[in-house]
Amino acid sequence: MPDTASAAVAHLPPLTAQAERLIELGVHELAGMAADDLRAFAADSVAADSVAADSGDSGNGTLLAVHPGRVAASALAPLLQRDGRPGFVVVDMPDVDDFAPHGVDLPDAPLYLVTGVDRGDRMANWSPEEALPALTGEHRSPLLLTEGIHWLLQQPAALERNHCFMTIGSRLRKPSGVLDSRTPAIWISNGLGRDGRERRNAPKVGWCWWGNRHTWLGFASATGRRP
Question: What does the pLDDT look like over 83-106, one tens digit per residue?
């Protein structure tokens, strides 16, 4: 069962409030859609959100997400904020937008809902290689990188020191057909090295190796997705 350790990871805001947050940030413009289309989707989905809550869907509630084909992770990351500092993608991940859904079925729609979001703290110090079959065995699906960013746009407090997360639903397939050993994650910069001191405490989109463990990284997942 999900074991979200921090009280900071509370229930997500209502879908209509999430829509307004994305509009405030200009995400609808990045996705090439009208603000009213985003509002209408959220309003039409409120009843579905209530059904999910009543059914005991485990986790953090329902998240409103834009399909990664409509807005890329590199465009969303700078919209993240922590301690007044914007989010960023590490310099050695210039191909971040090439990390695509892998083993994850997405609705064929510009907007969709992600249910039962959980940070996966219980899997801290697991490798992605170890975490994926465990999540599958729990009938959970790992979050995409764009979904993880969407979550933090709505709930910045879900990113905490020592309680950050990987988004292993996004993988990069090499031209040879082999999966890249890097797996995306979102954590908090210490302002060291190429990050730069000015980015200390900023949200950071980076990567970790498929077989490596990190004590401060859980594995974000969801119970499902629906249009």
Answer: 999 999 999 999 999 999 999 999
